[in-house]
Each structure stands twice: as structure tokens, then as C-alpha cells.
Amino acid sequence: MTTVESPPARSGPADRPGSAPGPSPDAPRRRSRSLGVDGEHLGLVALLLATAALYLVGLGASGWGNAFYAAAAQAGSESWKAFFFGASDAAGSITVDKTPLALWPMGLSVRLFGLSSWSILVPQALEGVAAVATLHACVRRATGAAWPALLAGAVLATTPVAVLMFRFDNPDAMLVLLLIGSAYAVQRAVEASRSELDAAGRPARWIALAGALVGLAFLAKMLQAFLVLPALGLAYLLLAGVPVLRRIGHLLLGLAAMVAAGGWWVAVVELWPAASRPYIGGSQHDSILELTLGYNGLGRLNGEETGSVGGGGGTGGRWGQTGLLRLVNDEIGGQVAWLLPAALVLGAAALLLTRRHAARPRVQAALVVWLGWLLVTGLTFSLMAGIFHAYYTVALAPAIGALVGVGAWAAWEHRRSTLGALTLGTAAAFTAAWAFVLLGRVDAYGWLRWPVLLLGLALAGAIALAGLLPRRAALAVGVATILVGLAAPTAYAISTAATPHTGSIPTAGPVSADRAGGPRGGPGGMGGPGMGGPGGTPPGGPPPAGQLPGQAQGQAQGQTQGQTQGGGMGGLLDAATPSAELTDLLTEDADSYTWVAAAVGSQSAAGYQLATERSVMPIGGFNGSDPSPTLAQFQALVAAGRAHWFIAGGGPGGGPGGGQDGASTSSQITSWVESTFAATTVDGVTLYDLTAPTTTS
After folding, report:
1. Residue 162 CA to chain centroid, in angstroms?
2. What is the mean pLDDT of residues 262-267?
3. Which of 23, 125, 254, 695 could lock 55 by a disulfide, CB 3.0 to 4.6 Å apart?
4. How far apart are CA 413 and CA 421, in angstroms?
5. 218-234 burial code (b ≥16 CB/10 A, e <16)
6. Is the pLDDT at 457 greater than 90, yes or no?
7. 541 burial level (CB within 10 Å; 0-12, 13-18, 19+)
8. Is it the case that residue 204 has pLDDT exceeding 50?
């Protein structure tokens, strides 16, 4: 941790409440007042190296991570067409249920370095390091000081769910990086609008860049990217230094850039003949617009997701309870909320403390961006009734980090004022008390509860009096408060990095026997390998006491799928892990077939595809509920000799809440195969040779 900066100890205008302490507007281009350029750069290098170590060490232990996306990256490395569309298999039968930008770095990495866990996951880790660096730049420009930027970066880097996602192959890593970049661009736009040299044109360029980055974020994870738009637009509308009509014009330019950056791919897909491209996974009518507005759009808010595996959240549905306390409940609190109370206290107080600051527009633009980001995204996650997983909350981590950094700096600058002292003490006390609560929810770090609470409360009282202390003593108290405040989330972060994670629904935090019948965040996360039965499904019976909200339903779903489909490996949440004998059978004479095998559900198919590095058709897409291919289409492919094996088991083929067309399609295909071809079993897996019918089809 770097040395905390402090204004001069002597009394003066900078120490009086309501004055304008701190750097002038051009401070980001000047030497730091206490660290110096060399010290500041060393601090940043140390932060990024520590972040890289946290995100990279032992990365290969997680295998493919989420095999659903790993298989798509492998497919993209084999076929540029599959790469462009984000297809699950190189033969291009169906896409993943997202836009493909997040897959492209992984696909290029596999193409360059070959298929391995590292080639899949290292791009994600590097995106995480870049996200920390970009957030550091945001806070550095807002405050003109080095230490709050380092603090913000450290908070993001050590947020447990951020560690999880930057070591995993879901689209969230790319989403977070691009959205932080858009926030930086808006801050630069406000700054440029107040410069006589820049106001003529550069604000518009920065706003256009912000819009383009949000558009690219849409290509990573669709409509979730747009949750930051109210905050970005409001910050520029309120604090830019150009006339109101020009501000509106700039924002319209940013909107156009966003539509262009995100809409070009959608337009290409819509215009491309459907017969010559992959089916759009996650839709029921082969439409990217349907996927955008339905399954990945409004359906996430109201729970009406055709093709989904189950109902909404409501007051205790499949995805957990909705409500204002969702982000601090047993499932999610330890993932992201360690510094959430402090962020809200510090961010709100900073708006008041900086109202007369010499660099007020620049500082308050950052505060509006990050407070708006946190509130809009947080409320959306809290109230959405559709599919929701704890790892989505990684999108909150940058806002929490930025608000802690900027808010702590503003309160420290005003520590001799009543509001500044009260803010510092309150934030520190809330952090200690809340860490005590969160640490009590698992047994792994129970020993840390009382030291964090007692030291934190003692330091809260001390930092509230920092304005009365000598400079060196005040600095020591400030550094100690930061270290104690970060102790608990850092412990969780290290535990997360040390634990392999696979499957569709990973969770962050330490291994704890009292969670979900197995390690919370351990191998497989929810429903992952090590959770019980075949293919990572849990054993039968009721969930253990203390199971996380929503986990019991998801695991029971996986268990039912594994049992009712029979014979197969893998399932809705986890990929198959075929034996060497089975892999050899699938790859025998593989060059003679477009697909060496087909299986219901993308996760099941992904495991076989990654093992063989050959195309395996995922019937019905992720949930097995998409009507792709139809029975007639599949029969035609089999008749043409394009598919060799059908692997029984896998996804639910529609499942509860699935689309009726998709459910009937995958069920019809399964029934037709079972009645037409003879079954064989290899290492417990049931297969049907599609080239050897036993009856006339």
C-alpha cells in the first residue's frame, strides 16, 4: 500500500470547511505533491503487478472454466465464420446466447497458442489488469492525486467477484473493462469542455468515444451495457462547460456512436441469409433482435424468458429473493458488498465536500458517473425477476472502488471540518461492522471477525480525529484504516484465486463446508464437479441447512436433468468429461463427418468438443430448448452422413419454463434416435451410431 497523501499540516484556507483544497484543474499533468512522479509510477506498477499475480497464478487449475464459452472460443479458432457469429461449434450449427465480442480475444488466443486452459483464460485475466489500470486513471484524473487512484484500483482488484470473473471465461470481464473506459471518456469530455483550447471540438470526440465503448460493451453482454447510460449522460449534461444545446448535441453524437459500434454486427446478422449462418442461440425464432429484447432483455427484468430453465425471482423464486436487500444477502454479500456501505457514505458526502472545490466540475462529474452507475445497476440487480446470478455483481465493483477512492480523498482533504471527520469515521465504522457480519456467514475466516471489528472501530474513532493529529500520526492512522478495511475482502479474494472454478454458475469466496453441500465457490461453483452425482449434479435429497438462496433450485434442476435423460455425462450447468476410450471412439474417422457427435444442450456438447477438438452439435442450444435443429433438419443431416454419434443425456430439452417448440424439438430428436438406432455404452455413457439404423426411419 502506498503512502497516503496529505495537505500541508499548517493551518490555512485549504483546511477550512467549504474552502477549495486540493489540486488545480491541470493537476493530472503535474507532479504529485508528496509521492512524486517516480513514486507514483512505482505505486501503479506495484498495483498492476500484484493484480496480475492475483489473476494469473494457478489459473490453469480451473480447466475450461465455463466450457460453454470455451467451446465457442475453440470453434472460433477453427473457423472465421464461427468466430464472427460466436458459434458453439466450428461447423456453425448454433451460436452462444450472447453477442460475440468477449469471445474474440479468446478465439484469437487459441488460434495463436493452441487450445489450453491458459489460452482461454489468460485474455480474461489481462482484461482484469487493464480494468484496474483504467479505473486508476479515472480516479487519478478526477482527484489529481495518486493515493486515491491506487486505493480505487486496489478495491476493484481485491473484490472477490472481480477476482472470480477475471479468472473465468464469461463475458463479464470484457463488459467491465469497456464500461470503465466509457466512464473515463466522459470524465475527459467534461474536462475538455472547460478548457478554452479543447472546448471547440475535443469534448465531442470524447463523448463519441464513450458512446462507442458502450456500444462495444453491448457486443460483449447485450443490454446490461446500457445500465450505465443514465449516469454517463447526466454527468455530462450537468457539468460540461459548454452551452446546454451543445451538450445535448454532443450526447446525441455519443448515442449515434454507440448505435454504430454496437449495431453494425446486429445489422449484419439480420441481413445475412439465415440458411447460411448459425441459428441464433437463446431465441425461439432465429432472431438476434428477439434474443436482445427478450431472453437477454426485458425477460431478465420481468422473468418472462421464453426458453429459460425456470421462473423468475419474485419473493423467493428460482433466482433468489428480489428486493432492496438482495445485494447484501447470504449469497451475494460476500461476493461484492464489503465496501458497499462505505462507497455510498463516501460518495454522497464527497458531493457536498467538493461543491466549492477548485476542480469541482471534474471531481463531481466523476462522482455523478460512479454514484449513478452504482445506484442504477444495483437497483436493477436487486429488483430483476429473471435469470440472475451472483457473479453479475462484478459490474458494481468499479463503481464501489471509484467511490471509495474519490470519497476518501475528499473527506481526507476536509478532515479538519466536521463533515469530513464524520464521513471518515462513519465509513470506517460501517466497513468494520459490516465485515464482522459477512465474516460470520462462513466458517473459513471466522477468526478474522473480531480483529477486524475491534481494530476497525478503534481506527474509525482515530481517523475521525485525524484533523487534530500531527501529520505523521494522521498518515499512519489513514494507512492503517485502509489496510484493515481491505483485510477481509482481500482474504476472500485470495481464497477465490486459490480455488478452481468450473461450470456455469461459479461463486467467489472461501471454501466452507456449511455452504450448498460442498465448497462454496469451490470446484464447479454451483452444480459444478465435486458437487455430488454424475456430471457435477448433487446427490438426491433436500439441500443442506444454510444453502444459498436459489442454489437448491438450480442444483435440483441439474439433478433432475441428469437422472431423467439417462446415460450421458454433463448437463445444463456443467460440461462432460469424456474418458480417453470415449474420446478415441468419437474421433475415429472424424474427417468423414461434419459433426462427430450431437448432444442435447450446449454444456454437454462442449465437453466432448473440447476433448476431441471436433465439432459437436449442441441440440437446442444452452438450455436444450431452442428449436434448432428441427427433427426434419436433423434427419436430413443424418441421412446425408454428416453426423456420426448421438450422445444421450445432457440438457433438459426445454425443462421447466422452456420454450414449447424447443422442448418438443429436442425431445422428438431424442425419441427418434432411440427408436431408430441401437444403443451402445462406453464408460457409462450411452451413444447411438447414426450411421447404423436398426429400423427404417
Report:
1. 7
2. 97
3. 125
4. 10
5. bbbbbebbbbbbebbbb
6. yes
7. exposed
8. yes
The Cα 208–Cα 257 span in angstroms is: 6
CA distances from 239 to 189, 355, 368 (A): 10, 12, 9
Phi, psi of 124 (to 5 degrees): -65, -45
Give the pLDDT confidence score for residue 17 in this predicted structure. Answer: 37
Q: Which of 621, 681, 611 is closest to 645 using CA atoms? A: 681
- Rg of the chain over Cα atoms, rounded to whole angstroms, equals 26
Q: What is the DSSP letter of 553?
A: H
C-alpha cell at 512: 466452507
For residue 94, the SS3 value is strand
Distance between CA atoms of residues 379 and 370, nearest Å: 14
Interstrand relation of 616-619 and 595-600 (parallel, antiparallel or unpaired): parallel
Q: How far apart are CA 347 and CA 121, in angstroms?
A: 34
Distances (CA, A) of 656 to 108, 324, 561, 605: 37, 27, 11, 21
pLDDT at 671 > cutoff 80: yes
Strands 677-682 and 685-693 turn out to be antiparallel
Distance CA 402, CA 611 (A): 42
In the structure, what pLDDT confidence band is assigned to residue 442 with cuts at 50, 70 and 90?
Answer: confident
Q: Which grid coordinates belong to 627? A: 428449436
β partners of residue 94: 279
What three-state secondary structure class fits 678? Answer: strand
- 564, 555 Cβ separation under 8 angstroms: no
Instruction: Specify the DSSP class assigned to residue 45.
Output: H
- The answer for 156, left when phi > 0, alpha when psi is -120 to 50, beta otherwise, is alpha
What residue has cell string 463533515?
A: 419
**All cell numbers assigned to 122:** 489468460
Strands (E), 63-145: none
Q: Is the dihedral of CA 486, 491, 496, 500 positive or negative?
A: positive
User: How many CB atoms lie under 10 A from the CB of residue 295?
Assistant: 28
Dihedral sign of CA atoms 694, 594, 668, 311 in order: positive
What phi and psi, each to the nearest 5 degrees, are found at residue 396? -85, -20
pLDDT for position 572? 64
Contact status, residue 658 vs residue 623, Cβ threshold 8 Å: yes
Cα distance between the two ends of the chain = 70
Other beta carbons within 10 Å of 350: 30
What is the enclosing helix (H) or strand (E) of 455? helix 449-464
**What is the pTM for the complete model shown?**
0.87
Strands (E), 227-326: none
- Pick the closest to residue 369 from 152, 220, 162 (CA basis): 152
What is the maximum span of the chain, computed from C-alpha positions, in angstroms? 95
Mean pLDDT of 405-434: 97
Q: How far apart are CA 179 and CA 399, in angstroms?
A: 11
- The arithmetic mean of pLDDT across residues 190-203, rounded, is 80
- The answer for residues whose C-beta is within 8 angstroms of residue 649's C-beta and 6 or more apart is 535, 562, 565, 566, 567, 568, 569, 570, 571, 599, 600, 604, 685, 686
Residue appearing with cell numbers 458453439 = 88
Three-class secondary structure assignment of 616-647: EEEECCCCCCCCCCCHHHHHHHHHCCCEEEEE
